[in-house]
Amino acid sequence: MSAGRDQRLATRQRNPKWQRPPLLIDMAACINCDTCIRHCPPPFGAIFNHGIDVVIIPELCSGCGECVDPCPVDCIHPDPDWSPAPDDWWDEPALRDPYR
Q1: Residues of the chain with pLDDT under 70
Q2: Which of 16, 29, 61, 98 is most open to solvent, judged by the fewest CB atoms within 10 Å of its CB?
Q3: Alpha-helix runs per DSSP H in 12-95
Q4: pLDDT attached to residue 96
Q5: pLDDT at 2
Q6: CB neighbours of 2 closer than 8 A, spacing ≥ 6?
Q7: What is the radius of gyration, based on Cα positions, of the chain?
Q8: What 3-state class would DSSP assign to 90?
């Protein structure tokens, strides 16, 4: 795992150098196939299963878009008006981090 990701996990802060907004999954369209998780680059490791939802932690997402094209239902979109992830979303990388 990259030192940058470790720092973002510890501080819950998005890299200020990232120009693109983080991405967001529209759960009304998502089919929970986990393709996005498999395509998220490990240095970012931003996508997690959270209960029955699949979530992108915006502080970890660079907006690279590697997860967008593989999504079979086109439910991943830029989130220019993003807000910080809820506290319970941070339990996922602490307990079940598929990127380690």
Answers
A1: 1-2
A2: 16
A3: 35-39, 91-95
A4: 85
A5: 64
A6: 42, 43
A7: 12
A8: helix
Position 100 scores a pLDDT of 85
Angular region, 50: left φ>0, alpha ψ -120 to 50, beta rest? beta
How big is the CA angle at 58 (ends 55 and 61), to the nearest 5 degrees?
Answer: 95
List all residues 6 or more positions away from 41 whose beta carbon is below 8 Å from its beta carbon.
Answer: 64, 66
Query: How far is the C-alpha of 3 from the C-alpha of 58, rounded, in Å?
Result: 18
Sign of torsion, CA 2 12 37 71? negative
Token couple for 55: 């979530």
Question: Euclidean distance between the first and final Cα of the chain, in Å?
Answer: 6
Lookup result for tokens 């890299």: 15
Tokens standing for 68? 């967008």
Alpha-carbon distance values, 73 to 31, 34, 70, 77, 85 (Å): 8, 12, 9, 11, 23
